[in-house]
Request: fold
Amino acid sequence: MKIYKSGYLKIDDIHEIYFECKWNPKSQPILFLHWWPGAWFSIKDEQFFDLENHNIIFFDQRWAWRSRWKKLKNQWDNNEIKRFYNEIINKGLANVSFEEYISLVNKEYLINNTTWDLIDDINKLLDFLWIEKVHLFWGSWWSALALVYSINFPERVKSMVLRGIYLPVPKIYDDFFFWNGVEKIYSDIWEEFINNFPEKIRSNKRLIVEYIKNQMDNWNLIYNILLDIFETKIMYLDWRKVSIDPYEEKDIRAAIIEFRYLYNWCFLKKKYILKNAYKLENIPIKIVQGRYDLVCPPEDAYKLYKALPKSKLEFVLWWHSAYDEEVFKKLKEFVEKI
Reply:
């Protein structure tokens, strides 16, 4: 697809974020917010838009795949790290060299990487592109980012089309991995997941969470990967149709960033979005929510809808993924009306 502008934008002394502007520069700009913290945009994401009528701004978040940063000095090189690395390789969970692993366990990915940093990056990108106001598009964690951005800068947002509303909660065991009996719906996937933990804690979700946090604090990346695989499998009606390949460096990095966001409640105060939703009352918001979404529960979408009387909420009889047939169809319908 036609790229009319692309490159790297220096946002501070460490980071440069990668961006691409595509299709019709004379049309109203739509800022695409990709998936989860640490993830990236791809050519697959272009299918929601119209070649003639849309002006799409894509970018990779700081620390994400194509964005760049100054490498910090390695902090790790000991037997414990080698043990963790060998365990990942032996389990077939990743496809990274030891050098890449050492880079991953450096805490550089967590430096200056919060919701508020990302909001600052959006403003810098829009300023660089001379864009005063923009439409926001996408969902899941990035629905939360879109909402927080719009609460703080409503004057820069023309409208939002969001999918799979996510309202951050204070504890990961209240979040989508352990929410509302997911193990009763995906019992086989749940059992496969918990078999990775000591037998004595498998029946206690809170102990599992504490165990995961302890392992992550010690930079055993197996649990980042296992959580990511578990999340991927419950996104779909039939996960077997989705390819889950051994993870490369960019995938593991995204998993690290995502779960650190979850542990830190996405760096937001309790009920931040709902308490400040009144600031969005003049922004047209359309929401597509899968009725059977186990990653971002429908309850969140309904709470947001009730807090925003002028918003429009469409439930579709599908799961979480934006590429599921019914979700895709409704998103495309809403985007065409921008």
Remarks:
- The mean pLDDT is 88.
- The radius of gyration is 20 Å.
